[in-house]
Design goal:
The protein is mainly alpha-helical. The chain has one domain: Orthogonal Bundle (434 Repressor (Amino-terminal Domain)), CATH 1.10.260.40. The chain has helices at residues 4-12, 17-24, 28-36, 43-53, 57-60. Helix 2 packs across helix 3 (28-36). The longest helix has 11 residues, at 43-53. The protein is globular, with a radius of gyration of 11 Å.
């Protein structure tokens, strides 16, 4: 599943994939696969990202428009 909002949130915060991968404790290539939808993102990483960006998981999945 392609999660466009993951990339949008990262870019809105002027972060690189390496920055987010480091925060999650994974390699940049793994995080890149999350953003491009080539690998499913584990729930624990999704929760960390939602907390980090201060948004809901529904927002990341584009189920709502308000962060």
């Amino acid at each position: 599943m392609y999660l466009k909002r993951l990339r949008d949130l990262r870019e809105d915060h002027d972060l690189k994939q390496e920055d987010i991968a480091s925060m999650l404790g994974i390699q940049q290539t793994v995080y890149s696969r999350y953003e491009r939808g080539f690998q499913n993102i584990p729930l624990e990483h999704l929760v960390k990202l939602a907390d980090y960006y201060g948004v809901s998981i529904d927002y990341i999945f584009e189920r709502e428009n308000k962060s």
